[in-house]
Amino acid sequence: MITLQNIEKVYRTSTIETLALNNINLDIRKGEFVSIMGPSGCGKSTLLNVMGLLDEPSKGTVQLDGQAVTQYRDKELARLRNQKIGFIFQSFHLINDLTVLDNVEIPLLYRSQNGRPRQDYAKDALTKVGLSNRMKHFPKQLSGGQKQRVAIARAIVGNPDIILADEPTGNLDSAMGNEIMNILQQLNDDGATIVMVTHDEQMAKRTHRLIRLFDGTQVL
């Protein structure tokens, strides 16, 4: 599903060079639920961004479904992200001036999906995360857990093969965090491949496999 070979990521300024990822080799198999852990600043989010084709590695190759994509143009990468990958962020990244339903429809707009089918897909996604009664609400009217459910609905509305989640329970209390994990596990049971960055050992234990990072290097 996702294969990283000899991945290195270096950030450079005029005065300093920072090695964010060093010789990462990973193979995320179809249907897995994988967690990534490590101290703050160790490269977890950078690794997730490389997997999600949001950030280009300085060295190494990224393969998606067996196809090397490292040299793809930006337009080709954007198309792959939209069709194959759903993103969930710790800070939700919802648009406050749009309703819940409108927020969830956004990925389908980039596919030029027609209005009525687009709305139907968004309603189905919100039903899956238990928010069918909040479609006309605005983000400011929702709790943190509800906002994260909207973010999950937005991530799954296009039926992606891969879901990348960056601290999806980080801003939530333990009860709501467990509810979000239950949703992610159900999505995984339904066939989605999920990679999740987390600081929570208990959440990580609920996934199939744990990858640990330290100073940009995979801990074996």
From TrEMBL:
Q: Identify the keywords attached in UniProt to this record, alphabetized.
A: ATP-binding, Nucleotide-binding, Transport
Q: Which InterPro entries match?
A: AAA+_ATPase (IPR003593), ABC_transporter-like_ATP-bd (IPR003439), ABC_transporter-like_CS (IPR017871), ABC_transpr_LolD-like (IPR015854), MacB-like_ATP-bd (IPR017911), P-loop_NTPase (IPR027417)
One Gene Ontology cellular component annotation held by this UniProt entry: plasma membrane
Residue ranges of domain ABC transporter in the record: 2-219
Instruction: Report the PROSITE patterns cross-referenced here.
Output: ABC_TRANSPORTER_1 (PS00211), ABC_TRANSPORTER_2 (PS50893)
Molecular function (GO) terms for this protein are: ATP binding; ATP hydrolysis activity; transmembrane transporter activity
Q: Which family does it belong to?
A: Belongs to the ABC transporter superfamily. Macrolide exporter (TC 3.A.1.122) family.
Name assigned to this protein? ABC transporter ATP-binding protein
